[in-house]
C-alpha cells in the first residue's frame, strides 16, 4: 500500500504538491490523474525518494522509500522512459540493475520475455522507439518482482497491442494482490484498467474514489466527463480555440 499524507513540495515560489493525502491500496490499480503540471510526477518522485518533500510523508508498506531494506524488490518504478543509457543494450541495462540488487540473471531473461523484448534485447536502447522504451522501462520495474508498481504514463507511445498488454499486465499484478499506481492522460484506458482514481489539480486532491463512484451521476457517464468537470478550475495550460 502507498500512503501519502499531507505531502507538500515547493520549488521556490511554485507549490508543485500542496498538502496531498491519499492511499493506493494493495490488490488494486489506482489511476493518478491531473492536468499538465498538476504535480503527478513530483508526487511519484517523492514516493520513491527522488525528491525530498518540503513537508508531509509518503510511505510504501508503512515505510519511507529510503528505509526500505530492498527497494527494487519492494517497489518497481518507471518514471522516465529514457532512463536507460542509450549506448547500452536492453539486456545489459537490465543486467546491470539486477546485479546491483542481487537479482539473478534468469530474472532478466524472464522480464525480457514478459515484456516482449526478446527480438530487440541486444539492441542499444538509444535506437529504441518510444513504445520499445516503455516496454524496457516496465521490464526494469518488474525486475525485482515487487509488491508495488509505480508507473508514470506507461501506455504513452504504445501501439494498440501494447496498450492492451499493459492493461492486462496491471490487472493481473493487482489481482495477485500488488499495489499499482499509474498515471495517464488516457481516460478511456484508465476507465478500463483502474479500480480507483486519484485526481489532483494544482498539487491538491480533487477526488479519490472508485471509477464507478466518480462516473455515476456525471452527465454523459464517462470518466473523461467526470475528470473534465473535476479539473475545470485547475487547468493551468489551456489551448485556444481552433478555427
Ligand atoms: N525540479 C523542478 N523545479 C522547479 N519546478 C518544478 C520542478 N519539477 C516540477 N516543477 C513544477 O512543479 C509543477 C508540477 O510538475 P509535475 O511535473 O509534477 O506535473 P505533472 O502532473 O506530472 O505534469 P504532466 O502531466 O505535464 O507530466 C509544475 O509547475 C512544474 O513546472
TrEMBL record:
Molecular function, one GO term: ATP binding
Superkingdom, natural source: Bacteria
InterPro entries: AAA+_ATPase, ABC_transporter-like_ATP-bd, P-loop_NTPase
Entry keyword set: ATP-binding, Nucleotide-binding, Transport
Keyword Isomerase: no
Transcription regulation found in the keyword field: no
Limits of the ABC transporter domain: 2-227
Coiled coil (residue ranges): none
Similarity-based family: Belongs to the ABC transporter superfamily.
UniProt name for this protein: ATP-binding cassette domain-containing protein
Organism, scientific name: Isoptericola luteus
Amino acid at each position: 500500500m502507498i500512503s501519502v499524507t499531507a505531502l507538500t513540495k515547493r520549488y521556490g515560489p511554485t507549490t508543485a504538491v500542496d498538502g496531498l493525502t491519499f492511499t493506493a491500496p494493495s490488490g488494486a490499480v489506482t489511476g493518478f490523474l491531473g492536468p499538465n503540471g498538476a504535480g503527478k510526477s513530483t508526487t511519484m518522485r517523492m514516493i520513491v525518494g527522488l525528491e525530498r518533500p518540503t513537508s508531509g510523508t509518503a510511505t510504501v508498506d508503512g515505510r519511507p522509500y529510503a528505509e526500505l531494506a530492498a527497494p527494487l524488490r519492494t517497489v518497481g518504478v518507471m518514471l522516465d522512459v529514457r532512463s536507460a543509457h542509450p549506448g547500452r543494450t536492453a539486456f545489459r541495462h537490465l543486467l546491470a540493475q539486477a546485479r546491483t540488487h542481487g537479482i539473478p540473471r534468469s530474472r532478466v531473461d524472464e522480464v525480457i520475455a514478459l515484456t516482449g523484448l526478446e527480438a530487440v534485447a541486444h539492441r542499444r536502447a538509444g535506437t529504441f522507439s518510444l513504445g520499445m522504451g516503455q516496454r524496457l522501462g516496465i521490464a526494469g520495474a518488474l525486475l525485482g518482482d515487487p509488491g508495488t508498481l509505480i508507473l508514470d504514463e506507461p501506455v504513452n507511445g504504445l501501439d494498440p497491442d501494447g496498450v492492451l498488454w499493459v492493461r492486462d499486465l496491471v490487472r493481473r499484478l493487482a489481482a495477485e494482490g500488488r499495489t499499482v499506481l499509474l498515471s495517464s492522460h488516457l481516460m478511456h484506458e484508465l476507465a478500463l484498467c483502474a479500480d480507483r482514481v486519484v485526481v489532483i489539480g494544482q498539487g491538491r486532491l480533487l477526488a479519490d474514489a472508485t471509477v464507478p463512484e466518480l462516473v455515476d451521476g456525471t452527465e454523459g457517464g464517462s470518466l473523461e466527463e467526470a475528470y473534465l468537470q473535476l479539473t475545470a478550475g485547475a487547468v493551468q495550460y489551456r489551448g485556444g480555440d481552433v478555427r
